[in-house]
Automatic annotation (TrEMBL):
Keywords: Metal-binding, NAD, Oxidoreductase. It holds the Pfam family PdxA. GO terms for molecular function: metal ion binding; NAD binding; oxidoreductase activity. This is 4-hydroxythreonine-4-phosphate dehydrogenase. It comes from Aminivibrio pyruvatiphilus. Transmembrane segments: none annotated. The keyword NAD applies. Coiled coil: none annotated. The lineage of its organism: Bacteria, Thermotogati, Synergistota, Synergistia, Synergistales.
């Protein structure tokens, strides 16, 4: 167990206030989980946090701070009370531009805190992409928003983690009809490199990676699509020349069977649902999303805001716990090499 002095300082934004985020944070704070792994700074309106506490039936003491500087400098469980959202006006389970702006503002402030050296990383409760866009943060997803705030234009992306298996995709939040034309040798290589780098950052010394084919049956030797021959195999060849252990391309309907048996540490998939379906079927309540390629670790549960159960007090916390522990581990790894 790390001493408190050695623990990283992690921001814990409450996420979309209309979802299960405040309930999740209340539950993990009340049981002491947050303080076991890091020095947590909960970020959001105190009224929203207390609503989450009431819904979850989770009471706990916390120190209230009026600024991020004050919160990050203190000890124990701390809330940076942003005072930006009145819980009395909330409609649980509803997409709201007001909530979207508030969650976007909080995340932007946390990234600024990371850039200033006040925070070592972020683990945020689930957000809603539609609300975020309606609130003025008009990006395809939060990952592009984070990269924009850091001033990063390439070498970043979303990864998902379950049971030690990491998944990175070449294309993400685009229509399925646009996938093929966005798969190039360079875009595939970028994803391989980002996956390799992120696995190393998370403590995997020699990552073993596999690549999923785009077409059914891996293209059937070019008779069912040529992307495997013209794009994926050349990308794999270059990666191998760079010292990255990657195999494939393999048909995705069988690849994850071997991957979950422990043969690989990471899988490169071609589009959003190709990996997401396999991972979420395997362990929906433990899947973690990582914003890879950024200067600081940023993680969140992969399950989303769960509007349908918001306010019922029945949400599980396992995915958030996994996300938070991973952010702490990555932050410690960053500190060790800095």
């Amino acid at each position: 167990m790390e001493t408190n002095r050695r623990k990283p300082v992690l921001a814990v934004p409450l996420g979309d206030a209309a979802g299960i985020g405040p309930e999740i944070v209340a539950k993990v704070a009340a049981c002491g989980f947050l303080e076991r792994h890091a020095r947590p700074v909960i970020v959001g309106d105190e009224r929203v946090l207390r609503l989450g506490m009431n819904i979850a039936g989770a009471e706990f003491p916390f120190r209230r701070a009026g600024s991020l500087e004050e919160a990050a400098a203190g000890e124990g469980l701390t809330l940076w009370d942003t005072g930006t959202l009145d819980a009395a006006t909330l409609e649980l389970g509803k997409v709201s531009p007001v909530n979207g702006k508030e969650e976007g503002d909080n995340l932007a402030a946390c990234i600024e805190g990371c850039k200033r050296g006040l925070l070592d990383g972020i683990c945020f409760a689930p957000l809603n992409k539609a609300a975020l866009k309606l609130g003025g943060y008009n990006f395809p997803s939060e990952h592009e928003m984070f990269a924009h705030l850091y001033g990063i234009t390439e070498g970043f992306g979303e990864m998902n983690v379950l049971e030690g298996l990491w998944n990175i995709r070449v294309t993400s939040h685009i229509p399925l009809k646009d996938v093929s034309r966005n798969i190039t040798v360079e875009s595939v290589l970028d994803s391989i490199r980002l996956g390799y780098k992120t696995l190393r950052r998370a403590g995997c010394e020699i990552p073993r990676m596999a690549m999923a084919a785009l077409n059914p049956h891996g293209g059937d030797s070019g008779t069912c699509g040529r992307e495997e021959i013209d794009i994926l195999l050349p990308a794999i060849g270059t990666a191998l020349d760079e010292g990255i252990a990657v195999e494939g391309p393999f048909p995705s309907d069988t690849l994850f069977i071997r991957a979950f048996e422990g043969k690989y540490d990471g899988v490169v998939t071609m589009y959003h649902d190709q990996g997401q379906i396999a991972i979420k079927l395997r362990g929906f309540h433990h899947c973690v999303t990582v914003s890879a390629g950024l200067p600081h670790p940023i993680t969140t549960p992969a399950h989303g805001t769960a509007y349908d159960i918001a306010g019922k007090g029945i949400c599980t916390t396992s995915a958030f716990e996994d996300a938070y522990a991973l952010a702490a581990r990555m932050a410690l790894g960053d500190r060790a090499v800095s």
